[in-house]
Amino acid sequence: MGHIQITPSILNSDLANLGAEVRRIGSADWVHVDVMDNAFVPNLTLGLPVIESLRKHTDTPFDAHLMIEDPDRWAPAYAEVGCGSVTFHVEAAKAPVRLAREIRKQGARASMALKPATPIEPYEDLLPELDMLLIMTVEPGFGGQKFLDLCLPKIRRARAMMDKHGIETWLQVDGGVSLETIERCAEAGADVFVAGSAVYSAADPDKMVAELRAAAEA
Ligand code: DX5
Ligand code: ZN
């Protein structure tokens, strides 16, 4: 298992002040940017031009989570505008292996996401193609939803597969991660933690990043 990383999602931050909002989480390992197209999920957020201009406002790397149709067409461009990690959903990808390779070719880490009802088993042999696997712990589309405990066994199975193959793929969880749920995720084998509302509803978001990190490391 890799070292613990905290990746706050800016979805629930003040979206009219993104430059300032990303600077409030200086101790985060990554900034998690949720891209939604109102087709793959019933919500619309932001895309390439906003990310390109936000890139200049922080040195913290960007972790783009693409909840969009046709990631085969769009994902490599997120690497080109400076995202250090690009996650596509396997449910939307036409050729996940080719796509992961293209993202890597653009110099970013390639990551694949699974919705709560998508099993990991059919993708076991793809894991070496990925730098990170994202297991969603809510249905994607909105921040502030309740953590789904039913996803924990899948996290455990994914971690066991990675151990079996002896690979260094990071295992990220996203959705309902808070001081209340992060230990369960870490215990199941996750090592990269997205937290949106938990961080941005805190009085001091950067202090919450530290608290989440301490809880996951415990
Ligand atoms: C949901 C997004 C998440 C969201 C998490 O579809 O992918 O990244 O911002 O928000 P919380 O942590 O509030 O569940
Ligand atoms: Zn996300």
TrEMBL record:
Manganese in keyword set: yes
Cofactor: Zn(2+); a divalent metal cation; Fe(2+); Mn(2+)
Pfam family of the protein (one): Ribul_P_3_epim
Keywords for the protein's UniProt record, in alphabetical order: Carbohydrate metabolism, Cobalt, Isomerase, Manganese, Metal-binding, Zinc
EC top class named in words: isomerase
NCBIfam families: PRK05581.1-4, rpe
UniProt record, GO biological process: pentose catabolic process; pentose-phosphate shunt
Enzyme active site: 34 (proton acceptor), 174 (proton donor)
Organism of provenance: Nocardioides cavernaquae
Keyword match Manganese: yes
CDD domains (UniProt xref): RPE
EC id: 5.1.3.1
Function recorded in the entry: Catalyzes the reversible epimerization of D-ribulose 5-phosphate to D-xylulose 5-phosphate.
GO cellular component terms, semicolon-separated: cytoplasm
Pathway it works in: Carbohydrate degradation
Annotated family: Belongs to the ribulose-phosphate 3-epimerase family.
Cofactor binding, per record: Binds 1 divalent metal cation per subunit.
Lineage: superkingdom: Bacteria
Record field: catalytic activity: D-ribulose 5-phosphate = D-xylulose 5-phosphate
A GO MF label: D-ribulose-phosphate 3-epimerase activity
InterPro entries referenced in this protein's UniProt entry, alphabetically: Aldolase_TIM (IPR013785), Ribul_P_3_epim (IPR026019), Ribul_P_3_epim-like (IPR000056), RibuloseP-bd_barrel (IPR011060)
Cited Gene3D superfamilies: Aldolase class I
Protein name: Ribulose-phosphate 3-epimerase
